[in-house]
């Protein structure tokens, strides 16, 4: 995927997210919501610096996904998800992410390895 200037994209993404509505006070609801959200875009970060696939479909499959929860947070408040991919080659990609509260506290770290396959 290349930018409009013909340069590859950087293997970095940032996104803000939060759960819709208000979640119950039980921290388990917040952990589960963030665990779900953490998998939505992370592995796609590995594709950003690579050439176009000429319109062919790419299949992605998670091989491993790990999370570390550092401190309490609320998933129904805005969270910043910073993602990067330091390595992608040989049909495998590695990505990691950090999730911060709006006031800048690191609350979750994420790592994921995935398999990438371009369909003919």
Could you explain how this protein is built, in words?
It is built from one helix and five strands, in the order βαββββ. It has 120 residues and is mainly beta. Strand 3 and strand 4 (92-101) form a beta hairpin. The longest helix has 12 residues, at 27-38. The relative contact order is 0.27.
At the fold tier of CATH, the topology name is Thiol Ester Dehydrase, Chain A
Gross morphology: elongated
Q: Structural class, judged by helices and strands?
A: mainly beta
Q: What would you say the CATH architecture is?
A: Roll
Largest sheet: 5 strands, antiparallel
Strand order of the largest sheet: 1-3-4-5-2
Q: Let me know the CATH homologous superfamily.
A: Hotdog Thioesterase
Q: Secondary-structure element order, as H and E?
A: EHEEEE
Helix content: 10-25%
* Number of H- or I-type helical stretches: 1
Q: What do the pLDDT scores average to?
A: 89
Radius of gyration: 16 Å
Class in CATH?
Alpha Beta
The overall strand count is: 5
Number of domains: 1
Low-confidence stretches: none
- Beginning-to-end CA distance, first to last residue: 17 Å
Task: Bin the strand percentage.
Answer: 35-45%
Keywords: Hydrolase
Domain Acyl-CoA thioesterase 2 C-terminal: 6-115
InterPro entries: Acyl_CoA_thio, HotDog_dom_sf, TesB_C
EC number: 3.1.2.27
């Amino acid at each position: 995927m290349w930018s409009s200037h013909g340069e590859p994209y950087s293997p970095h993404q940032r996104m803000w997210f939060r759960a819709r509505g208000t979640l119950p006070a039980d921290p388990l609801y917040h952990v589960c919501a963030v665990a779900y959200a953490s998998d939505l875009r992370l592995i796609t970060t590995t594709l950003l610096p690579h050439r176009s696939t000429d319109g062919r479909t790419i299949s992605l499959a998670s091989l491993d996904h790990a999370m570390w929860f550092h401190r309490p947070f609320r998933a129904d408040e805005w969270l910043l998800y910073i993602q990067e991919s330091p390595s992608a080659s040989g049909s495998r990609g590695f990505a990691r992410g950090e999730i911060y509260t709006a006031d800048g506290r690191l609350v979750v770290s994420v790592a994921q390895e995935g398999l990438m396959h371009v369909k003919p």
